[in-house]
Design a protein that fits this description.
The chain is mainly alpha-helical. Helix content is 52%, strand content 4%. It has a two-stranded parallel sheet. The longest helix has 28 residues. The radius of gyration is 17 Å and the shape is flat. The N and C termini lie far apart (61 Å).
Length: 114
């Protein structure tokens, strides 16, 4: 054995560390503060479920931006309904243009929908 599997394992753990740290924060919020404030979510999945899935699927930076955009959409005059985490990142998003990861407003429904 040349030892590459142990190096890959250590690198993998280090790469996943920011995701796991954010996940701990999200779960802490979900099971403490969220339960105190009451569950009054306008979206499905809830903002904490959305944040957890976005961070685990797309990484710490992209997932955090997506979660922030979702929380910004969640206000009394905002949208509601089913709003899943995107399967893939936008084509024009890069780490140095991180704001492109988030959908900051709910897309308008097409004419005749609803």
């Amino acid at each position: 054995m040349d030892g590459t599997s142990s190096e890959d394992g250590a690198k993998g753990v280090i790469r996943r560390l920011p995701r796991q740290a954010l996940r701990v924060l999200i779960l802490s919020y979900r099971y403490t503060l969220s339960s105190i404030m009451g569950r009054q979510c306008r979206y499905l999945p809830t903002c904490s479920e959305y944040a957890e899935e976005a961070v685990m699927r797309h990484g710490a930076l992209a997932g955090s931006v997506m979660a922030t955009a979702r929380v910004c959409r969640c206000h009394p005059w905002g949208g509601h309904g089913y709003d899943p985490v995107p399967r893939c990142l936008p084509a024009d998003a890069r780490w140095y243009r991180f704001w492109r990861y988030g959908v900051w407003r709910m897309p308008k429904e097409p004419d005749g929908a609803g």
